[in-house]
Amino acid sequence: MIELKGVSKTYARSAVKAVDGLSLSIGDGEIFGFLGPNGAGKTTTIKMITGVLRPDSGNVSVDGIDVAADPIEAKRRIGYVTDNPELFARLKAAEYLNFVGDVYGVDTRTRQARVSEYASLFGIKDALGGSIGSFSHGMKQKLLVTASLLPDPQNWVLDEPMVGLDPKASFDLKEIMRARAAAGRTVFFSTHVMEVAERLCDRLAIVNKGRIVFMGTLAELKRGQGADGSLESLFLELVDGEAANEASPKAVV
Ligand SMILES: Nc1ncnc2c1ncn2[C@@H]1O[C@H](COP(=O)(O)OP(=O)(O)OP(=O)(O)O)[C@@H](O)[C@H]1O
Ligand SMILES: [Mg+2]
User: Fold this and answer.
1) pTM above the 0.85 mark?
2) Is the C or the N end of the chain the one with fewer CB within 10 Å?
3) Which residue owns the Cα nearest ligand 1 atom 17?
4) What is the 235 CA–ligand 2 centroid distance (Å)?
5) Considering every ligand atom, which ligand is closest to the CA of 11?
């Protein structure tokens, strides 16, 4: 379960809020999609959920644990796939996985079983002896996904996870997301890919300029806008509408 209450963030030397009074609640067993144009505040929000950034105001909790008050306990419950898989180029992939296993306190047998399961699924098992610096973007992404699942986290937070993945890996990732939600875990991911959101999410939020302009199910989104077009056209309508009419957004929050 992930909860944000009135969360705001302004970066240093910036005149505008990257995230502006954002509230949302994602329950166990739910796949929640976070959509919005470039610069809308998705990554900033995700960094506040995962404790990488501190909100200026508002509150983030994970399974009822306040991220600011008890960051270690909160992070224990989160598996995080960042949007930027540039990490530890000199480490061998297997060393990185062991490092993550150590940090989360995953015992050796469980670690081996999970690495084997996901690295085999993603076809990187034979490459784990190589240094991360020699990996392609997609291989790094697969390694990050594998590492994020090592502790079998209750909450799985993924920032643009499909970027750079080949179609099979993308399919496999979606299957894992579905399986985890079916097992009662929380899955929160950002995407630009409307089709992914359309097929995968139980609920979604569309964010623009740091604010939520829609939150609900896809059916509610389509009803709210009185259109039966694609999610892509609804998305554009909401985001453009917000830009054109700042004072009274067509929000269905
Ligand atoms: N490190 C930073 N320093 C200053 N401003 C930043 C920083 N990171 C992001 N911003 C600003 O905060 C706003 C939100 O950015 P953010 O990265 O959260 O957007 P996003 O929705 O993830 O976009 P994208 O779809 O391109 O990934 C943007 O205006 C961006 O310029
Ligand atoms: Mg981003």
Assistant:
1) yes
2) C
3) 43
4) 17
5) 1
Instruction: Quote the ligand 1 centre to 187 CA distance (angstroms).
Output: 22
Q: Which of 248, 247, 242 is nearest to 36 (CA)?
A: 242
Write out the two tokens for 83.
């949007």
Does residue 47 line the site of ligand 1, with CB under 6 A?
no
Nearest CA residue ID for atom 4, ligand 1: 11
Beta partners for 108?
Answer: none
Residue among 191, 196, 84 at smallest CA distance from 144: 84
Tell me, what DSSP letter sits at residue 70?
A: -
Q: Summarize pLDDT for 191-210 with one digit per residue, the tens.
A: 988 888 888 999 999 999 99
CA of residue 206 to ligand 2 center, whole Å: 13
Domains detected in the chain: 1-77+154-167+182-253 (3.40.50.300), 85-152 (no CATH)
Does any ligand 1 atom lie closer than 6 A to the CB of residue 206?
Answer: no
Q: For ligand 1, atom 8, which residue shows the shortest CA distance?
A: 44
Amino acid at site 96: Y
The pLDDT tens digits for 92-135 are: 999 999 999 999 999 999 999 999 999 999 999 999 999 999 99
Contact 119, 176 (CB under 8 A): no
The answer to whether residues 94 and 128 touch, using CB atoms and an 8 Å cutoff, is yes
